[in-house]
Write a structure and sequence with these properties.
single chain; about 325 residues; mainly alpha; Rossmann fold; Tyrosyl-Transfer RNA Synthetase; two-stranded parallel ribbon; 5 strands; about 5% strand; globular; binds tryptophanyl-5'AMP; EC 6.1.1.2; aminoacyl-trna synthetase; Rossmann-like_a/b/a_fold; nucleotide-binding
Length: about 325
């Protein structure tokens, strides 16, 4: 039986955190055997916030290393860079012409930018359409993401539907894959873990960084247990052993943080060491990316030939 298609991406905007990992990236690894997977580096999306050549280049290579270090196997997964598939931006334009400004004005990221008094770029406004193109151009069935991307997958579905009803059946309607208990991983202050809140624990943190982040977890002495510590700890331990531990060490917040530090170290160290090893052979890593990009581009081109024909851009 043909495997279903899974597709997702991460923006190269800085170091990934454990929210990215448990909310989305871990699923990429766990599902790589059961799906035909396309996992990419969303470098064009990153341009909405990173506008520095050296920084962007370093971040792109960084995400590639992250993917390999968490265990994505290039034999099973097509790993590619978004900008190596220019058909995506071509499709974005076509979808733009099927989208209204009021429709896109309801997107969360744009509304938040406006609410915060920012003047969003056209790129930020159009972000969901570029993402829709990423997804539907590869005929994705499922898109594993965190809760914050849910609306974007709904927009991708809407765009596929809109295109199909205007030009005839062409695109599959994708579904998001969001794990209920991991939909929004909390940060050190209990809010959603996010680079912009400065409440992250880095996925490839050094031992020292792990200690510092955990010690900065905000605790409230009025509760039964330190909720913010427990919530992060729950990512690493099953509920039964965790409840036992928190019962044994009731009220000992510092000790509980120390156990969390040790558990995080056990989880992070092997991945961090693997990443260091991978980084030593940049040439091989870049070859993996090139092979993946070639494959993703060829597939996208095939789809775009059909799109150009249906839209009326192709003359013969
Ligand atoms: P990015 O790079 O911001 O985030 C990568 C993934 O991490 C998830 N995530 C979280 N999940 C749970 N709890 C959190 N605190 C948390 N923080 C981040 C995000 O939901 C995401 O799945 N727009 C995408 C990149 C993208 C994409 C795509 C994804 C571009 N095109 C097509 C899927 C399909 C993004 O901003 O990722």
């Amino acid at each position: 039986m043909n495997k279903k298609i899974l597709l997702s991406g991460v923006k190269p905007t800085g170091r990934p955190h454990i929210g990215n990992y448990f909310g989305a990236m871990k699923q990429f690894v766990e599902l790589q055997d059961s799906y035909n997977s396309y996992i990419f580096i969303a470098d064009l999306h990153a341009l909405t916030s990173v506008q520095n050549k050296d920084e962007l280049r370093e971040n792109i290579l960084g995400v590639l290393l992250d993917y390999l270090a968490i265990g994505l196997d290039p034999e099973k997964v097509t790993l590619y860079k978004q900008s190596d598939v220019p058909q995506v931006t071509e499709l974005t334009w076509i979808l733009n012409c099927l989208t209204t400004v009021p429709y896109l004005s309801r997107a969360h990221a744009y509304k938040d930018a406006i609410a915060n008094g920012k003047e969003p770029s056209v790129g930020l406004f159009d972000y969901p359409i570029l993402m829709a193109a990423d997804i539907i151009i590869q005929d994705a069935d499922v898109v594993p993401v965190g809760q914050d991307q849910k609306q974007h997958i709904e927009i991708a579905r809407d765009m596929a539907q809109k295109f199909n009803s205007t030009f005839g059946d062409t695109f599959k309607l994708p579904d998001s894959l969001i794990l209920e208990n991991l939909a929004t991983i909390p940060g050190t202050d209990g809010r959603k873990m996010s680079k912009s809140y400065g409440n992250t624990i880095e996925l490839f943190a050094t031992d020292e960084e792990i200690s510092r982040s955990v010690m900065s977890i905000v605790t409230d002495s009025s509760g039964e247990k330190p909720e913010n510590v427990y919530a992060i700890h729950a990512l690493l331990k099953d509920k039964e052993s965790l409840d036992k531990l928190y019962e044994e060490k009731k009220g000992q917040y510092k000790e509980l943080k120390e156990v969390l530090i040790e558990d995080l170290k056990k989880f992070i160290t092997p991945m961090r060491e693997k990443r260091v090893e991978l980084a030593k052979d940049k040439k091989s890593v870049l070859e993996v990316l090139k092979a993946g990009s070639d494959k993703a581009r060829a597939r996208a081109e095939k789809k775009m030939e059909e799109v150009r024909e249906k839209v009326g851009l192709k003359l013969s």
